[in-house]
Specification:
This protein has 177 residues and is of the alpha/beta class. The protein has a single domain, classed as UDP N-Acetylglucosamine Acyltransferase, domain 1 (3 Solenoid). Helices cover 19% and strands 25% of the residues. The strands form four sheets. The chain has a seven-stranded mixed sheet. The longest helix is centred in the first third of the chain and has 19 residues. It starts with 6 loop residues before the first helix and ends in a 5-residue tail after the last strand.
Length: 177
Amino acid sequence: MNKEISFGKAIRFVFYSFMQTILHWSLPPVRVLLLRFLGARVGRECVILDCVFSNAYHYGFSRLTVGNRCFIGGEALLDLRGWITMEDYVTLSHRVSLVTHINVGFKDYPLQKRYPTKESPVMLKRGCYVGTGAIILPGVTIGKESVVGAGAVVTKDVPDKKLAVGVPAHTVVKQGH
């Protein structure tokens, strides 16, 4: 067996895949309780719809922090390989992807020399909103009360109280204000 795929990692993969199925079939209030039981820090009055938690077999749910009164829409993808921190009042619309790592393959893959595995946290500051289908890449912080437009691909930090749109995302400066 490949040393990168240990027996323990395989067992963790099966366990967390099973837990993903349980989370999928749970109602939102039960889903929040299960996430807390699994090690995530989830605040009060959160609504977490049916989303996908990828790479949980690495560290479990311990790298996920969700503040108070947050909303995570359906089919959102949260990559738990790196840290995800959502402060209070954060809204993730449907099909948002929070990506916290890059891994182009096994250690002997040709691209590993140029693109080694890297984990970087994603931070969503208080009161920000991420629109449908947006992708937030590793190491990005979305500022306080900022908005990320639908379908945007965010490759760098978004300052507080800004609108970021496009591929790659750029901040919009309002004219005449």
